[in-house]
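Two proteins were folded this term; both appear here.
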Amino acid sequence: GGIYMSVDNANSFTDKTATAQIGQFYRISVSKQTASKMVGGLQDNGGYAYSNGQWKNYYGADGMDTAVHPTNSNLFYGFIQSGGNLYISNDGGNTLSSSVGAPGGENGNWITPLAMNSAGELFSGYTNLYKLNGANWQQQNSTSFNGSSLETIAIDPNNDNNMYVADGSDLYKSTDKGLTCSPIYFAPSDITSIDVHSSNSDIIYLTTSGIDGEALMSTDGGNSFNSISDGLP
């Protein structure tokens, strides 16, 4: 958390932590309009927002996955551990504006995934896929996953209808914004990240976990993958 010093028998303390690079980010998101607006979640140190040239801590606990609204660069979102609460700031992280509890008291993964599409719709992954509706999470999927907490969510930057969800080592794809999700690929180990090419919806990237984990690439919309791990340690 930092280093503090007192010279008056602990009646007051001065924060000596400034400029010390000791925070560990779990996740970070950057505004679509400007790199001068970003938000991140830090282990043990909550959610931090960067705006007006300063980092500001706008909520506590373990800061986890984050999102910035695509058209409002002052609207920040951040999860705490296991998706226990979502914290929202509408003034660039200067203050905490509101919070949203987990759906039905669910616990997600330690890093519960968040994903925002180009229309500003926010999705989260517990044992199901949820969409933020006002001050509540509303279940989005009508088809079921394999029953464990979802690992990660990715949205095609070229088409909001295309969504990819990882449940353990199973990759699911939706072409109707998460309403129906079908398994399309079974990775050799748990999927740790998914990314869709910025201009070609057929190109998908995956990474998988473990000492035999790989970087994988698909050129057919996720139906098949080839390893691109050669040369990685």
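Next, the second protein.
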Amino acid sequence: MNICIVGKGSIGSRHASIYKKLGCKVYFLRRKRKFLRNKIKNEIYNIKDLSKKKIDLYCICNPTSLHLNVLKKFIHLGKNIFIEKPLVSNLKQLIRLKKYFYKFKINLFNGYMFRFDPRIKDIKKTISKYKNNEIRYANFVWQTYLPSWHPWEDYRTSYASKKSLGGGVLLTCSHEIDIAIFLFGEVDKVFCVKTDSSLDNDVENSVIIILKHKNGIVSNLTIDFSSKHERKRKFEIILKNKIIKWDFNSKYYESNTKTKKRINTRKSSNIDKIYLYQNLDILNKIRKGVREKNFGKMSHTEKVIFTAKKSLIKKKFTRTI
């Protein structure tokens, strides 16, 4: 297959590397040639050049606020479009994307790759055997430090630090919100509050969120990209008779009852593998002609994000948009 990628940052380059290993031909769409010292092999510089190629999948991996403008250029050239999470940066854009989705019958893929983590898929299968009232609650924690992500640059200039580019911890670090939705289903109400941060930018850097799922389960989330002294990423599900634990840095997940039990999945679970499983799934769906036809289901995580932003202002539980 031929893959076109917009955005040659770390995430765009990661997707390119994976698709090349899968035997795909990868093209990068670049708007301005003059900023490149050397022409990159197979690089395309404008939509006119792109229209001459038979592109099977367009991958939008530039800053979140620009996703919709790029998608508008592609919808007349092809229907298979992947957008790195989150789909868009505000509710107005989400409403416009919904119109494009149904009008042009886009085969849209969203970049929440942790749904393909074998450990998390196993946990989802395990908890599906329990009744909702047997699951007491779940705790999610992601503490990271934005300035350490790209130490070669000033974090204040990155898209994650700029409101105008779709930055902020709610949009940039929304994976945990999506994992909670993947495990426990759609969310009915959201409460969100900011916590203090020493970072110098115009976005929310640390939040605590409570999600009330439609099935009655409650998820508590701490998402913080201003955590200078401690980095961790894990969640635990509290059931009446056990605790199930996932840690990003462990190849196992744990099920704790009277004895501590480590469960190893059949598939490898490192971050490169998780992205690989996601991209393989996308290619397989394209080959089989499988298309998600329910935009509401696909975009529910974004709706929860924008509801959390609304809750920050209202300072109370807010029904999901």
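Confidence is low (pLDDT under 50) at residues 34-38. The longest helix spans residues 271-288. These notes refer to the second protein only.
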